[in-house]
Amino acid sequence: MFEKYPKEQRYTLSILQDLQKEYNYIPKEKLIELSEHLGIPLSKLYSMATFYKALSLTPKGKNIIKVCDGTACHIRSSRSLLDEIQNTLGIKPGETTKDGKFSLETVNCLGSCAIAPVMVINDKYYGKLTSSMVREILKEYGGADDE
Amino acid sequence: MKITIDGIVCEAQKGEMLLQIARRNNIFIPTLCHSDALPGLGSCRLCMAEVMDRGRRSVVASCIYPVKGEIEVFTHSDKIKSIRRNLLMLLYARAPEDETINKLRKEYGVPDNIRFSGDIEEHCILCGLCVKACEELGSSAISTINRGVTKKVATPYDEPSSQCIGCGACAYVCPTNAIKIEENDGERTIWNKTFQLVRCERCGKPFATREQLEYSNKKLGTDCGEALCEVCKKAVVGEKLKDIYERTT
Lengths: 147, 249
Known about the structure:
Chain A is built from six helices and four strands.
């Protein structure tokens, strides 16, 4: 999968992004393989992989939930959305459910303050949310089925 | 070319770094991340100085400021002192128990009752000098990991690195002695990896790791012959020179 790119340092990030897309995270073996392929020290790649939020070293869930906790969303009680998700799925921000279905992240602004509080699942936006709405939305994705 | 630093006229070459010129003229500018062998980092910002260039005043990091014209420099103006105090306050918050930081903090009169509370175990100020040393001298075994408040220097996955040759250059250059390096019973432990130390063939003192010697042989392209510690190496060279001198006179 590296062959698509010339063996040059400047393609490192593109390759890492491809790996992230392919595996939903960056496996250790792949990172080592890439370091050998490009001739870049592993420490450099590891540094990059931990620097960018778009890259993850632990497996990410199939559905990525991003809850906005920027100022506008925060004062419209985005925290209660997070609490609701934690109650339903049992994960805190930065964590992934055991079944690998969901990952939860907080973001600092989604640029949609008019519809605060906002949550994004994969690439779909949900605005003007309440806790009960969150529960319903999660059901659509196959979460909260224990109820 | 002549420049004036704190009222002292100094001879300078075009393109020379301001800090270098100041040091040569015995003008003290505090630094943490600067090493003559590994210049150009400019991350600790303690070496800030005020530069007056053609009527314009600016604040620069003297370790990475190349002198281009006849400038006037102030290394201890009120503005600079206040900048250094702020920097030291933040560094103190980061590494509250560190000796180097505390010495500088006291020198600049920064109180120790600040509103930030740092980890008393922390000594690293994340200047990046060790990473640079490892890159240039060793084999890039360490790097900065994560970012923001969780940023740290470590080996990939916090595991013993196969790249690390145990040379200890990182610990040697560290301005705050933040890198743990332990030596006992002919073993050296650094970055969670333990190395067997090679004994000096003359005095028997354990002095370097096998990986380190192999690395330097490879880098120099020759076998360095006898494995000698620093003191014995000097003695051997001294003897050789003495022989040559005696033969020629």
